[in-house]
Amino acid sequence: MTSVWLRNPLGILADNAGGGVVVRDGRVAALIPAGGSPDLRDVQVFDASNHVIIPGLINTHHHFYQTLTRANAAAMNQPLFGWLNALYPVWARLTPEALDAAATVALSELLLSGCTTTTDHHYVFPSGLEDAIDIEIAAAQRLGIRVTLTRGSMNRSQKDGGLPPDSIVQDEDTILADSDRLIARYHEAGADAKVQIALAPCSPFSVTASLMRSSAALAERTGVGLHTHLAETEDENRFCQETLGYPGRRFIRRRRRFIARWWRRRRLAR
Ligand SMILES: [Zn+2]
């Protein structure tokens, strides 16, 4: 395969590479010192003199579908639960076409800002949107970005004392069956993986302890990662104390199999 020399960048985050880098088969094959040059047979040259070379950024938490509701007036300046309650009814009408548009916008924004690997936490599955993760994977493959997409989930709705409306949650069996299907169909192992699947029960106020346990067991059996929201706001802390009788952090600490495989978001984005 042809190599590409990114020649003489304006700046580069690597020692002794003022002359740039040679990329071959998707990997950095050589660092070129200032004033140096590689063996130029079969090497294409890209003039990087107006560019800065940095490693691709990695985004560890996102909700692609929310790109469509960033400017919803009813949700503006609300605390977490008020914000969610304003937007759940809108998200309940999410269609496959709308999710494809949202994922395309989100992934394009990420690529344009230097991100080459991203995750997404998609947990809204209204009727008609059962293939949400398949839609996101198709968008990622179309744009060429590397992804770890989580099969998110909610199974504790208002009728069971949870926060989300009944229309956007699924039962535990449906969630686990679809998680299993997605892992078998799409999950790639190894350093060159372009698409990976992880499991992401949404939060203590929207999933049951049983779903947390079964998601952790499935992740352990199939070798995929786990992700969730935890202790995001005082709303959630109050909910856990009043409904579960203990703080949200203990909800997770009691499930050590979950912790062993998880990464979680910090206070970067909802
Ligand atoms: Zn989030």
Give your account of this protein's structure.
The chain has 270 residues and is an alpha/beta fold. The chain has 2 domains: 51 residues, no CATH class; 208 residues, TIM Barrel (Alpha-Beta Barrel), CATH 3.20.20. The chain is built from 8 helices and 12 strands. The protein has a 6-stranded parallel beta sheet. Helix 5 links the parallel strand 10 and strand 11. Helix 2 runs parallel beside helix 3 and helix 4 runs parallel beside helix 5. The C terminus is likely disordered. Zinc ion binds next to loops.
The second-level CATH architecture of the largest domain is: Alpha-Beta Barrel
Question: Main β-sheet, in a few words?
Answer: 6 strands, parallel
Please indicate the percent range of residues in DSSP E strands (runs of 2 or more): 15-25%
Q: Major sheet: order of its strands? A: 7-8-9-10-11-12
Helical content stands at 25-40%
Q: CA-to-CA gap between the ends? A: 42 Å
**SSE topology string:** EEEEEEEHHEHEHEHEHHHE
Indicate the overall shape: elongated
Q: Which molecules are bound besides the chains?
A: zinc ion
Low-confidence stretches: 265-270
Which structural class is indicated by helix and strand composition?
Answer: alpha/beta
Mean pLDDT, nearest integer? Answer: 90
CATH superfamily of the largest domain, by name, is Metal-dependent hydrolases
CATH topology of the largest domain: TIM Barrel
Radius of gyration: 22 Å
Please tell me the total number of domains: 2
